[in-house]
Amino acid sequence: MAVKQFDDLTERRLSREDIFKGRVFGVHVDKVRLPDGRSSTREVIDHCDGVAVLALDQENRVYLVRQYRYVFSRVMLELPAGKLEPGETPAEGAARELKEETGIEPEVLFPLGRFIPSCGCFSETLHLFMARDLKLGDQHLDAGEFLNVELLPFDELYHRCMDGEIEDSKTIIAVLKAKELMQRG
Amino acid sequence: MAVKQFDDLTERRLSREDIFKGRVFGVHVDKVRLPDGRSSTREVIDHCDGVAVLALDQENRVYLVRQYRYVFSRVMLELPAGKLEPGETPAEGAARELKEETGIEPEVLFPLGRFIPSCGCFSETLHLFMARDLKLGDQHLDAGEFLNVELLPFDELYHRCMDGEIEDSKTIIAVLKAKELMQRG
Asked: Is CATH 3.40.50.12780 the classification given to domain B50-184?
């Protein structure tokens, strides 16, 4: 078979044009130098990093939020999640978002790793956590935030991730990783 | 605990402003009516759907591509993937992208489900496939496409997904789902 190999894949920025600065994300377009010396453009969405939390209670049930996702014109069932605030560590952001959306304050919060949702053009990295030993308090939704909290047995959630009923990346990755870690014991 | 419940979470479009139409994505901002009757804005990135393929050879090795991801200023190791072309089914797009990027033509291609990378503002859905019974042919990279093909044992790839070395969502989801399906036999 004929397959090329490149020694250096780096693309170098030549110039930048700022296109949009919104409330949620920004857009810029860079002119870049490709590995073969030619030039091209790279369209980039600037989005801050975020967190998501798999909060598991004593009966192995997971706290989920059902939210209307305007881009897809439907409600989706997802792990509690949100954007990191400036200066916040991922663990701090995870605890804050979990408390705001569900009222839960966990005694134990440990990382399930991070991932990049769409590495081609979207700059977000998401940090995943598992929460245990949950204390239930009051929810504090942001203004303009509407969601319903639902409890689902972990095994049921796992099957919904495997069979395609759950389509949200952060929920699928956190649940499948947690399943593996639980099986290891 | 005090947790609100909403009967109808639907957000309704009031008006639209087109912001940007790029080569890779577009951006629009909609004014919407929230469930409580107030109005807000929704920033949306329009991106076509895509495909990714976990191609496994006779020795249980996976074909990966190492690409420079400009948004993250580094190379990343990922499954072969790409955007669907107009009129193409996900399976057709998966076969085409696999052939273009690695030269592989599979005898067997079956779905591993689909997922939404970032449901809050990014309209892309990604369709995952597993390929078996691989024939090796010639690669046909797009103009301006630079990548290196690498073979990695499936178990090594699985561990890199679990330990956080692989951060790409499509690669993690396809590998963890495939691992579960292989364990079921």
From this structure: no
